User: What shape does this take?
Amino acid sequence: MIEILWFIFDIMLVLLLLALAWTTCSTQDVMRAVTLFIAMGLLLAVIWARLKAPDLALAEAVIGAGISGALLLSAIKDYPSNLMVSHRSPVMRGMINIFTIALTILMSWAVWHGIEMSDGKRLSEQVASQLSISGVSNPVTAVLLNFRAYDTLLELAVVLTAVLTVLILNEKRADHKVISPLLQGMTRWLVPLLVITSGYLLWVGAHAPGGAFQAGAMLAAAMILLQLAYPSIHQGFNLYLLRLLLVIGILIFVLVGLWMMLLNDDFLAYSPAWAGSLILIIETAATLSIATALTLAYLGGRPTGWENGLKKSASHKDSHTDNGRVK
Amino acid sequence: MIDIMAILLIFFGLFFFLSGSIGLLRLPDVFSRLHALAKADNIGLAFVTLGVIMLEPNILNDIKVVIIWLLVMAASAISSHLIARRALREHRGDD
Assistant: This one.
């Protein structure tokens, strides 16, 4: 009886996800598309939880639905309010449809093939057999920061590159002027909670679902909330520190990698005895970098006074005016 | 006995969610929709939380559920306030 109910629930989840995905892509109104996309992210988080992948569920809820939602919502502010998706020609639309359907079939085949072809040496078993020397007991963290640490390093580089592009292209978006005392009151309660939760996620990543990306996104959410409640808060940023925080994740990662290369002849080949501590150090730095990167991406460009070199950003009112000047 | 009560409470909560959603779909303007959604969902969530607490013997998990309930209540109250204020501004601007 219970199994049948779960089955019905799962089928409903999948159908709802497909319907949401379809309406997200086919709607003409950008605002509606973004809202539906956020809803789809939340639904996807529930589905990951149902698939017993709590790490992915957490990441999807925080990054996919939360932070991406905030980034998209702040991005569409740059467009006129009645923005519609550009009207593509029927030929173009048909080609996009054919390409998408082909991609779906190809990916379904790849997944099916992967399950069919399993020859008893699944990757998860390899991970499980090496878990004891990885320094952590959570297999997901072991893969992300030990066995496939290279991938994670490059992922951090991708995030950094994206944010550098944002910083090169734009000034920060104009502050919204409306201030809500109620929102400020809630923010004062919520931000400490978010910081604690972020630290918890970072720490717990060693043996349970959590980790740098979730923790970093949570910290960025706290920053975004602060920015929404107190629009001028970014003027108090120490820009020198901000630059350091932006790159510290990759810096520490590469330094650890090189250090381990001196000891063990291979880049990022940790000594098993230190692996746990090294992973924690890297993850802490990565959390700070991811949080900074996502916060800057939310601001949509260089904060006030970014060009003025390494001077501490003063909170004086007319700092807007020296912005364009080349030093 | 406790199970049956818990299930009844959860269904009672779901009924409020349902009426809130119907209100969201059927009512004419932003303010009445917010009214339906925020209030019905909060009371619905309260009943679901009560039901879940009755089913879950672990006191730590119960505390977590209560914290989630409080956070959702605060977030829903504040976001309703923000949406309503924005709608009010646009409403005045149109006049």
User: Anything to note?
Assistant: Chain A has two domains: 1-84, 138-314. Residues 138-314 of chain A form one domain. DSSP finds eleven helices and no strands in chain A. The interface with chain B takes residues 178, 180, 182-183, 186, 189-190, 193 of chain A (CB under 8 Å).
